[in-house]
Amino acid sequence: MSYHNPVLLFESVGGLDIVPNGVYVDVTFGGGGHSREILKRLDADGKLFAFDQDEDALKNIIDDDRFTLIHENFRYLKRFLRLYGVQKVDGILADLGVSSHQFDKASRGFSTRFDAELDMRMFRGSKKTAEHVINKYSEERLSDILFLYGDLRNSRALAKQIIESRSETAIRTSFQLKEVLQKFLPKSKEHKILAQIFQAIRIEVNEELEALKEFLMQTEDVLRPGGKLSVISYHSLEDRLVKRYMRSGLFKGEPEKDFYGNVEVPFKKGKLITPSVEEIKENNRARSAKLRIATKL
What we know:
By secondary structure, the protein is of the alpha/beta class. It contains 12 helices and 7 strands. Strand 1 (23-26), helix 2 (33-40) and strand 2 (47-51) form a beta-alpha-beta unit. Helix 6 crosses helix 7, helix 6 (139-150) crosses helix 9 (190-206) and helix 10 packs parallel to helix 11 (236-248). The protein is globular, with a radius of gyration of 20 Å.
């Protein structure tokens, strides 16, 4: 089984309009699929920096003098590029969310398919696990997470059930959590609802939306004029942030106009690209993917 089958590989890398001697960043290295494709398009003077906070990704490191893998969260993009003497780059690629490898490795606790400890950490040095969230958060906070990150309309009832159950026995594994919430999981919708619950907890554990915002805000400083930002997202929460930032440089509200009514924005937004029917058939994970590409002004 491959570590991860990259989604929209040629579309996302092609969207970078790679300059052979340019400097590029793949902020979600994973199995290295996108990075390898970028390296194919660089000449001997080109450079590629990649980020990944998951130690499993380090096993996929590419032996190439033009390549540097930085074992950090992409929220620290600017800091670590500066550490390597890089001020500006020609393109940045991000493939958000969880890799196939993380879903398929039972011990990571990301998947609803396996009975595993409630972990869900992308960076295993973090102290916050899914078990901590489930057993320590208040009812109100749990309800908010399930509603905001999982789009679960019955989040209050779900949170109440978790609180009642954990007061008797701590909830340690994915199947225990499933059992606790069984009455909210009708057979026809069980998989969908569980996926929403796990997504909500995972986003909280990894501070995914906060990290994405921090990353996006740094891209306008790091990219040189004409540089490309290519981002693949998998759910509406991520895609909304990416779309708004590419459109206006903001996550909410509208940019201010100058005296003449002109709006200053950091990017020129490109079109939305989604996977072909053929790609979705070959790789089910591609079904919810959305690629957005923007050019730094």
